[in-house]
UniProtKB/TrEMBL annotation:
GO CC annotation: cytosol
Protein name per the record: Luciferase-like monooxygenase
Domain Luciferase-like residue range list: 12-309
GO terms assigned for molecular function: oxidoreductase activity, acting on paired donors, with incorporation or reduction of molecular oxygen
Superkingdom of the organism of origin: Bacteria
Pfam families: Bac_luciferase
Matches recorded under InterPro entries: Bact_Lucif_Oxidored (IPR050766), CmoO-like (IPR019949), Luciferase-like_dom (IPR011251), Luciferase-like_sf (IPR036661)
UniProt source species: Deminuibacter soli
Family statement: To bacterial alkanal monooxygenase alpha and beta chains.
Family matches, as PANTHER family: LUCIFERASE-LIKE MONOOXYGENASE
Upper lineage: Bacteria, Pseudomonadati, Bacteroidota, Chitinophagia, Chitinophagales
Length: 338
């Protein structure tokens, strides 16, 4: 069985953080995101998601629903959504109204991925949540409330979402640990795992999800989306150099010294020490970097081992043209879609 034949059954999508590059502004990031989304639509990508993060000098996707609207308004067919909305940061009614508005404007194209993490540090989390600092413990109940607000049966309730009520907005559970796997399975919702930065629990989590899955009105069988890092180029040495921007970005997570995305360097030697290299590479375990043939071969193995239904690529590449090219090469790996 060829790589292309194997991968042709797998959907491919994009996760975007509207990454801020050194020397550029959030506005530059937003415009680049739109160009990426427009290209992704032409290349057959299924969905284009934005992740919610706060108080990070290298991430501009804090007002996630606004970016979803910006991209949806300037594309035609690609699904646009959140990967995800950090639900404990928001009242379910407000989320229902925001995504009800988006789904009313762009029917059949909006996804609502929900996460439990703060998407920030604890200081920022307290600033966002105030007295609701323990809201993560209500994640299950908040998702249920969202489902109720979206349902047509809620029309007799005293609390209703306008717009939102009666709209078929797919809800996804996002996760980076096994806790989310139990919840997604119990609720019968599609499961998107953050294997691009939390690889340790990935295989165990998707096994739990599949074993415990209970069919629901939204989904009759398990559906797993895995997010991975992708750096594709014409040659593996070229990809290895482009990859150093991502390595520097994650080194900032390891050291706590976050800064805008940096240009690539010829070598990471001298940039990190052995311990930092180990910790960074552990986080980046599911990174696919190289030429198209290398990525195709590794992706086929990944799909054979995990059985995922969809792969979502996130690419932190400094040069915009190189990034657009990486997404073009990645799409070619999956072959032509029917």
């Amino acid at each position: 069985m060829s790589n292309q034949h194997t991968l042709s059954a797998v959907k491919y999508s994009v996760l975007d953080l509207a990454t801020i590059k050194a020397g550029l502004t959030p506005a530059d990031s937003f415009h680049e995101s739109l160009r990426q989304a427009q290209q992704a639509e032409k290349l057959g990508y299924t969905r284009y998601w934005f992740a919610e993060h706060h108080n990070m000098p290298n991430v501009a996707s804090s007002a996630t629903s606004l970016l979803i609207g910006y991209v949806a308004d300037n594309t035609s067919t690609i699904r646009v959504g959140s990967g995800g909305i950090m639900l404990p940061n928001h009242a379910p009614l407000v989320v229902a109204e925001q995504f009800g508005t988006l789904a009313s404007l762009y029917p059949g194209r909006i996804d609502l991925g929900l996460g439990r993490a703060p998407g920030s540090d604890q200081l920022t989390s307290r600033a966002i949540r105030g007295l609701n600092i323990n809201a993560a413990h209500n994640f299950y109940q908040d998702i249920r409330q969202l489902q109720t607000l979206f349902s047509p049966e809620n029309e007799k309730s005293a609390l209703r979402a306008f717009p939102g009520e009666g709209l078929n907005i797919p809800i996804w559970v996002l996760g980076s640990s096994t806790d989310s796997a139990h919840l997604a399975a119990a609720m019968g919702l599609p499961y998107a795992f953050a294997s691009h930065f939390a690889p340790q629990a990935f295989k165990q989590a998707i096994q739990i999800y599949r074993e415990e899955f209970q069919p629901s009105a939204q989904l009759d069988k398990p559906y797993v989306l895995a997010c991975v890092n992708v750096v594709a180029a014409d040659s593996t040495p070229e990809a290895a150099k482009l990859l150093t921007s991502l390595q520097q970005l994650f080194l900032g997570i390891v050291t706590g010294k976050r800064e805008p995305l940096q240009p690539p360097v010829d070598t990471m030697a001298g940039v990190w020490d052995d311990a930092q290299q180990y910790m960074t590479n552990e986080m980046l375990r599911y990174t696919f970097a190289g030429d198209k043939e290398t990525i195709s071969r590794r992706l086929e193995q990944f799909v054979a081992e995990t059985g995922v239904n969809e792969i979502m690529a996130t690419s932190h590449i400094f040069d915009e043209e190189a990034k657009l090219k990486s997404y073009r090469l990645f799409a070619e790996v999956f072959g032509d879609k029917e």
